[in-house]
Amino acid sequence: MVLAGRDLFVENHVVPAEVDSGWHIKDVAGAAFARSVFEGYWVRATPWQEARAALADAVTTPRQRMILRGLGEGDTQAVVAKALDVSGREVGRELESLRDELGLKSTNQLMVWWATSRDREVP
Asked: Domain residues for 65?
């Protein structure tokens, strides 16, 4: 996607055979919306250098981060388990393992830790 002034250029991901094709969108509102969405993501993005440093210091595993992100978005453990294609028991084991490692007694304490953890910045 390329934003150029009031124009928006979008790469073609619909027809695989047409490698160098795309769309030129001249609709001002559409381009403004795309710019707004992009800027929102850009502001919340983590620079690569910071992400690499956070990964080196990470306490959580990739699966634990996926679980914590799901719970942080308001999903239940059952919903997170289904989304990850694992059992609810496996989600519980992952959370228990992380609680033990951090010396926490409850998932609520774990979520408070997660809310301020640098691990949130790790992809």
From this structure: 54-121
Nearest Cα to Cα of residue 71 among 110, 24, 17, 121: 110
Angle at the Cα of 38 from the Cα atoms of 42 and 46, rounded to 5 degrees: 20
Please write the tens of the pLDDT for every residue from 40-67.
888 877 676 666 665 556 789 999 999 9
How many structural domains is the chain composed of?
2
Which residues lie closer than 8 Å to 80 by C-beta, 6 or more apart? 66, 67, 70, 71, 91
Q: Which long-range contacts (CB under 8 A, 24 or more apart) does 32-36 make?
A: 32/6, 34/1, 34/3, 34/8, 35/3
Same domain, 41 and 62: no
SS3 (DSSP) at 78: helix
Helix (H) or strand (E) holding 4: strand 2-4
Q: Is the pTM of this model over 0.85?
A: no
Residues 111 and 61 in one domain: yes
Mean residue pLDDT across the chain: 87
Taking the alpha carbons at both ends of the chain, their separation in whole angstroms is 22
